[in-house]
């Protein structure tokens, strides 16, 4: 580390500060993988805050490259604490953020819903107690609020969608009828970004209501929720969607979908290239542009009627997945939305009975929930499987009922 420069008129103060910083530097060691760790239990949060105050109140200055180096090694909580030391540190933090490995897009775990049991089986359509489960992949995931007990004031919670580090969570209280609330929640920093109240359904004939979250980290102010609804009246089916903008705080006008265009509520959607994508009962992909409140349909490949189909995204590309009765999994990637050309990327045979699956957004990894709630990761390049854990019996994982798993990659800003 470069020497600390201080005013000559205060040599004693500089010497004390140097001694203090040297002591703290000895306590902060690094692991072989480069992540910071505490070598002593005495390195407490209170001491770190005190160190930050000493630096802020002193006349000590650091070269810009030293500040960036310091910030680029810090874990999330100390990073945001130390960037508040001064205006110059705050300005340099944007450079350090891009260099800091703690903020690189890595999967910290999987969220899933747990539902009540009825006669030894999961009751997927129960309005009774529901909670959220989390599978931890990383030691850093301990910083994530995966219980929501700190922030969300509802007896029952379930994840509705997950998009680029934000969760769309539905909460309701027992005995409240069909009243519920939707939260846009960032568990990495324990921050509620928006709350919407969902009144009871007015149309008794309405048969579904589903939500998707749209969030682009490059445009932080643009958070949208897309609501899909459908009901039947006098034998005629009506399907609509509308979008809520976090920026304007208003629902945009309701748009009618084409005849027979109905999404599959139990197959989760994905967010790619600024659009929400959901699979329809005709095995088409419905792509919603939340900014323009418009949509287009993308034709998928022909698959056997008994095949289970999914969609997902990996490395910014839309994928279509089919799992047939021969236990063969095929993964196709959309080359472009204009040409609607699909390219076969992976095929895996002799897969165990799949209950649900989800793609890793940044790597060629597939997470599979199979029979007996066995959760495994599959390397799509090598086909190697690794068992991660056994999920609880109440986990909502069925591929024919509304239960999903979501890969969680934290978003800290």
Automatic annotation (TrEMBL):
What domain of life? Eukaryota
Q: Which residues form the F-box domain?
A: 62-102
For the region Disordered, give the residue spans.
1-36
| Protein name according to UniProt | F-box family protein
Q: What species was this sequence derived from?
A: Rhynchospora pubera
């Amino acid at each position: 580390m470069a020497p600390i420069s201080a005013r000559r008129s205060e040599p004693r103060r500089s010497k004390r500060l140097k001694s203090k910083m040297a002591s703290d530097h000895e306590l902060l060691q690094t692991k072989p993988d480069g992540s910071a760790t505490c070598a002593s239990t005495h390195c407490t949060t209170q001491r770190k805050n005190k160190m930050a105050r000493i630096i802020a109140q002193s006349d000590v200055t650091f070269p810009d490259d030293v500040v960036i180096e310091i910030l680029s090694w810090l874990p999330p909580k100390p990073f945001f604490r130390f960037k508040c030391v001064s205006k110059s540190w705050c300005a340099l933090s944007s450079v350090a953020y891009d260099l800091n490995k703690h903020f690189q897009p890595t999967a910290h775990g999987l969220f899933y819903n747990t539902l009540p049991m009825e006669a030894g089986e999961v009751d997927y359509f129960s309005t009774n107690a529901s909670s959220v489960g989390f599978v931890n992949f990383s030691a850093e995931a301990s910083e994530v609020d995966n219980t929501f007990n700190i922030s969300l004031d509802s007896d029952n919670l379930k994840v509705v969608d997950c998009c680029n580090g934000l969760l769309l969570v539905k909460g309701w209280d027992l005995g409240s009828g069909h009243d519920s609330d939707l939260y846009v929640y960032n568990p990495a920093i324990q921050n509620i970004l928006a709350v919407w109240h969902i009144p009871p359904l007015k149309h008794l004939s309405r048969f579904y209501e589903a939500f998707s979250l749209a969030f682009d980290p490059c445009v932080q102010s643009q958070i949208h929720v897309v609501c899909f609804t459908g009901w039947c009246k006098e034998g005629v089916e009506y399907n609509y969607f509308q979008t809520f903008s976090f920026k304007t705080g208003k629902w945009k006008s309701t748009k009618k979908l084409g005849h027979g265009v109905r999404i599959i509520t139990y197959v989760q959607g994905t967010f790619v290239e600024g659009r929400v994508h959901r699979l329809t009962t005709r095995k088409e992909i419905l792509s919603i542009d939340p900014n323009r409140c418009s949509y287009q349909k993308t034709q998928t490949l022909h698959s056997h009627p008994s095949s289970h189909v999914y969609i997902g995204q990996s490395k910014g590309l839309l994928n279509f997945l089919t799992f047939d009765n021969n236990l063969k999994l095929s993964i196709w990637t959309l080359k472009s939305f204009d040409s609607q050309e699909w390219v076969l990327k992976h095929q895996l045979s002799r897969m165990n009975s799949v209950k649900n699956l989800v793609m890793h957004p940044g790597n060629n990894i597939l997470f599979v929930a199979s029979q007996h709630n066995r959760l495994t990761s599959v390397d799509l390049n090598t086909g190697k499987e690794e068992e991660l854990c056994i999920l609880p019996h109440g986990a909502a994982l069925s591929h024919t009922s509304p239960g999903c798993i979501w890969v969680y990659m934290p978003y800290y800003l």
